[in-house]
Amino acid sequence: MPIIVNIDVMLAKRKMQSKELAEILGITQANLSILKTGKAKGIRFETLEAICKALDCQPGDIIEYISR
């Protein structure tokens, strides 16, 4: 898939664990894992907004398009 999800990169830059982000977002660690691995079919804008707020970043820092 040409869409790459970089949540792990941002978590490392912010020195935050997945568990902490999941708690802030109010989602399960399993659902966060689905987002992180790129297995999600989509993401709600409100979830993307909450991730950006928690990690103090822009949507482009989390989602990347790689052409093939």
TrEMBL record:
Pfam families with a match to the protein in the record: HTH_26
Entry-linked SUPFAM superfamilies: lambda repressor-like DNA-binding domains
Single Gene Ontology MF annotation: DNA binding
Domain HTH cro/C1-type: 13-62
Lineage top rank: taxon: Bacteria
InterPro entries per the UniProt record, alphabetical: Cro/C1-type_HTH (IPR001387), Lambda_DNA-bd_dom_sf (IPR010982)
Name by which UniProt lists this protein: Transcriptional regulator
